[in-house]
Amino acid sequence: MTDPGEYLEPTIPTGLAVRDLPVVDVRDARVAALAEVVTGDPHEFPVPVEAWPVVGNRVLDPGTGVGGGIATGMFRCLWQGGQLWATNEAIGGRYVIGLATPPEDLETWLLAGSEPEQVLLWHLNYPPDGGQLFAAVDGKPFLVP
After folding, report:
1. Which domain, by its residues, includes 34?
2. How far lies 37's CA from each of 34, 41, 144, in Å?
3. Which of 6, 18, 90, 104 could disulfide-link 14, Cβ–Cβ 3.0 to 4.6 Å?
4. Which of 99, 102, 97 is nearest to 86 (CA)?
5. Structural domain includes residue 62
């Protein structure tokens, strides 16, 4: 397990490779198996909860692997300095999810008073036992990192 301090003050090595990731519109049929646009009341949308995937010889006891259930809460992102912070009220989490610039350039970037033009994603998660539902509180299009 990662030390919780790594979420709040991550030790990010310098010189990491950077890959450009496209912004994907989830209405595109090519990603239909990965995402779905929710219409109507998001509270009425059925979020799947499935048994955790198994690897190798590991097996799950019947009726287990789905204990996490469904958690509800706001997910907020906010730039603080050159770091993009996320607050996940559903699970009580707060962590750095990205940077505006490579770590080795951060001090110069901050001194220049720059504004973020990109996000270098650092922390991502994938819930293998179900899905995540993100809905805009104002009904406007949005990006999910």
Report:
1. 24-52+131-144
2. 11, 12, 13
3. 104
4. 97
5. no
- Interval 10-60: pLDDT, tens: 888 888 888 898 888 888 899 888 888 888 888 898 887 777 777 888 787
SS3 of 28-83: CHHHCCCCCCCCCCHHHCCCCECCCCCCCCCCCCCCCCCCCCCCCCCEEEEEECCE
Determine contact, residues 106/10, Cβ cutoff 8 Å.
no
Q: pTM for the whole thing? A: 0.77
Instruction: Give the span between the Cα atoms of 89 and 71, in whole angstroms.
Output: 9
Shared-domain flag, residues 111 and 139: no
The residue ranking higher by pLDDT, 113 or 133, is 113
* In the predicted structure, residue 130 carries a pLDDT above the cut 70: no
